[in-house]
Write a structure and sequence with these properties.
Blueprint lengths: L1 H10 L1 E3 L3 E3 L10 H15 L6 E5 L4 H11 L3 E4 L11 E7 L6 E7 L8 E9 L3 H13 L2 E11 L4 H7 L4 E11 L2 E4 L1
Parallel strand pairs: 3-4, 3-7, 7-8, 8-9
Antiparallel strand pairs: 1-2, 5-6, 9-10
Helix pairs in contact: 2-3
The chain binds guanosine-5'-monophosphate (5GP).
C-alpha cells in the first residue's frame, strides 16, 4: 500500500538488529487517519469473509485492530501477555518468543471470548519471525474458531515468519512488505 510505504520511508528509522522503528505513527504515537486508511484496506481485502471478531495481541496490535473492528462492525479480543487479577483463570494460551524483547511470554485469552462460532481476522502491526501470529493462530485453533486470515501492517519479508505461515495455509495480507533494510533505507518487495 503506497500510503504506508511512503510513510515508512518518511518517518521510519532502521535500528541495528533488524528492527524498524515506526513509533511516531504506528506503535507508540498512533496516526488515527492513517489507521483508518489501513483499516479500509483490510476491510476491502476481507469484506466477503463474514468476519465476526478481530483477534490481536497487546499492546501494539490493539489500536489498529480497534479501528479495523469498527469497519467490520465487530468486537476485538486481544491476547494478554500477563496474568492480571481480572483475567479469568480459564484461558487458552500459547508460548510466544518476543522478537523485540528477546524473551518468551505466554499469550492468554479467556475462554469466554472465543468459540467455534467465531470467524476471526487476526490483526497485528508487524510480522517478523511469525511467533506472535503463530501464537494467535494456535489460540484460535484451541477455541475451535475459524481464522479467515491475518491482516498485517508491516511484514519484514526478509524474516521467515510470513512465508512459513503461508506455507502452512494461513492467508496473510500485509500492507507493506519490506524486502530489505539497512542504515541507508528500506526496500519494498
Ligand atoms: P514476530 O512474532 O513475527 O517475530 O514479531 C511480531 C511482533 O514483534 C509484533 O507484534 C511487533 O510488536 C514486534 N516487532 C517485530 N519486528 C518489529 C520491528 O522491526 N519493529 C517494531 N517496532 N516491532 C517489531
Amino acid at each position: 500500500m503506497k500510503l504506508l510505504e511512503e510513510r515508512i520511508i518518511k518517518d521510519g528509522t532502521v535500528l541495528p538488529g533488524g528492527v524498524l522503528k515506526v513509533d511516531c505513527f504506528l506503535n507508540h504515537q498512533l496516526d488515527i487517519p492513517l489507521f483508518c486508511e489501513l483499516a479500509k484496506e483490510f476491510y476491502r481485502l476481507f469484506a466477503d469473509c463474514n468476519i465476526n471478531k478481530i483477534l490481536t495481541i497487546e499492546a501494539s496490535g490493539l489500536g489498529l485492530a480497534s479501528i479495523t473492528a469498527e469497519r467490520f462492525g465487530c468486537p476485538v479480543v486481544f491476547a494478554r501477555k500477563s496474568r492480571t487479577k481480572n483475567l479469568s483463570p480459564d484461558v487458552y494460551s500459547a508460548k510466544v518468543f518476543s522478537f523485540t524483547h528477546g524473551e518468551p511470554y505466554d499469550a492468554l485469552v479467556s475462554k469466554k471470548y472465543l468459540s467455534p462460532a467465531d470467524n476471526l481476522l487476526i490483526i497485528d502491526d508487524f510480522l517478523a519471525m511469525g511467533e506472535a501470529l503463530t501464537g494467535l493462530w494456535s489460540i484460535a485453533g484451541q477455541a475451535g474458531a475459524r481464522v479467515a486470515g491475518a491482516g498485517i501492517a508491516i511484514e519484514k519479508a526478509f524474516q521467515p515468519g510470513g512465508d512459513n505461515l503461508r506455507k502452512q495455509g494461513l492467508r496473510i495480507e500485509s500492507l507493506a512488505r519490506i524486502a530489505s533494510m539497512d542504515e541507508n533505507g528500506v526496500t519494498f518487495c
